[in-house]
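#struct-pred

JT: dropping the chains for the assembly here, can someone run the whole complex?
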Amino acid sequence: MRTVTVGTRRSQLAVIQTEWVIQRLQKNIPEDWKLELEKMITRGDQILHVTLSKVGGKGLFVKEIEQALLDERIDLAVHSMKDMPGEQPEGLTFGAVTLREDPRDCLLSRSGLKLEDLPENAIVGTSSLRRQAQILAFRPDLKVEPVRGNLNTRYKKLMDGQFDAIVLAYAGIQRMGWEDKVTQILSEEVMLPAVGQGALAVQCRFNDHEIMEALQRINDLETEQTVSAERTFLHAFEGGCHLPIAGYAVLVEDEIRLRGRVAHPSGRTVLKGERKGKNPEEVGRLLAKDLMEKGARKLLDEVREGEEQ
Ligand SMILES: NCc1[nH]cc(CCC(=O)O)c1CC(=O)O
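RK: done, full complex below.
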């Protein structure tokens, strides 16, 4: 008999994702174990009105949940892989990476017009430099403005008329059951996804062998390997999800094919590359090296300087 506490943020998307993991895990644990969902209110959730970077960045949500794991207040934590920093605290690990859902981004526009048909100067809401850069590379005549908040808040801002369109991850839309709100799924060619987008990370204590064993059964090997290539690529630039970097890998036969982009937020420069290979980390490292040779370092230094001002 064991009660396993599963922690997550309290946003609707986070709760749906966690319930999904609990459901799958239920079939893979001893019958007398009980799984309990714990919705955690993090400081990040309480101070949504301040610029997140001023209070420690997006990693703040994650850090508080990780502390709860280390303190044994919870036994498992479910996160969007895309929000996870490169390094985990000592003692924690991903017990499972779950099967990736559709990794692409999508456009929700009030007029129902697609990205290519939006009128000149139309305002697209996104706070992601990756999305901003790729939108402007494709349509330099559009305006991009930041939008914060959870999915419900962002959708409300669109409907209130603050933006003509917003860009969101299709995986999140599907989990919310919002497919009918989507105007267009953006192709990989136009909008290469974020590293880890569409996959969930189930985090636990490294020495909790019972849990590690159960999680192994819901791990998806293909997602684990492709995401590993993407994350190695991203972290070679010493940057997190706030940099204009995209990376997406698939398994083709028994090889990993990784595509990556490093862009200037203006969209004027988008460095692109592709690598194939059997070893995920090596593929990630080599693609990062290719893009460094094309000038990625200098480009990102410019972005970082812009942030400090
Ligand atoms: N940036 C926030 C975030 N983190 C994870 C998702 C949902 C999709 C996923 O799990 O990759 C979203 C929403 C979005 O970007 O539209």
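JT: nice. The chain is about 35% helix and 25% strand. The CA atoms of residues 85 and 199 lie 14 Å apart.
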